[in-house]
């Protein structure tokens, strides 16, 4: 989704999230920019169906970190790629690559629009992708690796005096139908349950304030600008009621 929007609350906040970001880079950015956080600040860490099945360093557009992380923190840093991203950024875009390879040639555009068939097409494609990633995760123990990374983040935050909140963002009902409780338990919840921590987990995935409202979404699992403003206020109000502000 778009980043959190806490401006109306008067809170100062720093958004370190980029689309599709793995826990590995969550941790790198937190350590890099932690100096800007108050010692008693609140760190909100978003959890999704991809959190534990992502492979670190796989399919990561690491060029987007060249301007915000030291090159020693970028796993597969190559000087040639650095110059390409910094001085010829257009050659690294998905659109450019797609145009060169004719990757989408022969496919009907309507089948790839976010809300074609009421979002069902998108949800089906995302389901196929997630299941493929899940099979890889089982084979290569990605889930254990990501769980350890999450533990490291929680331990680091405790050492720095930060309060940590885990959240799960709302999705549209079309998406929910593919990622029901059984699937989410397999992908996410069983792993969270192994954590020996009292860190709160605020799960808004099936929140009825969003589930049937396409006006809040870019696609069936990503909030748009209007959606993120509404969601951010809801999170703020809940954290306030829990005594964090």
UniProtKB/TrEMBL annotation:
Domain of life: Bacteria
Name recorded for this polypeptide: SGNH hydrolase-type esterase domain-containing protein
């Amino acid at each position: 989704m778009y980043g959190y929007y806490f401006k109306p609350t008067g809170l100062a906040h720093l958004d370190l999230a980029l689309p599709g970001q793995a826990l590995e880079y969550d941790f790198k950015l937190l350590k890099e920019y932690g100096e800007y956080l108050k010692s008693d600040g609140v760190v909100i860490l978003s959890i999704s169906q991809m959190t534990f099945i992502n492979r670190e360093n796989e399919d990561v557009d690491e060029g987007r970190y060249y301007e915000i992380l030291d090159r020693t923190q970028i796993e597969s840093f190559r000087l040639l790629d650095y110059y390409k991203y910094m001085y010829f950024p257009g050659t690294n875009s998905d659109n450019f690559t797609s145009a060169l390879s004719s990757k989408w040639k022969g496919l009907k555009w309507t089948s790839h629009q976010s809300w074609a068939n009421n979002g069902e097409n998108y949800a089906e494609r995302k389901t196929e992708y997630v299941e493929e990633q899940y099979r890889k995760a089982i084979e290569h123990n990605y889930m254990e690796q990501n769980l350890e990374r999450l533990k490291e983040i929680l331990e680091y935050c405790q050492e720095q005096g930060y309060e940590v909140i885990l959240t799960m963002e709302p999705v549209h009902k079309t998406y929910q139908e593919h990622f029901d409780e059984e699937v989410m338990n397999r992908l996410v919840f069983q792993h969270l349950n192994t954590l020996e921590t009292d860190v709160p987990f605020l799960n808004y995935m099936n929140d009825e304030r969003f589930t049937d409202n396409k006006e809040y979404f870019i696609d069936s699992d990503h909030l748009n600008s209007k959606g993120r403003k509404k969601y951010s206020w809801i999170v703020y109000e809940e954290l306030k009621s829990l005594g964090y502000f």
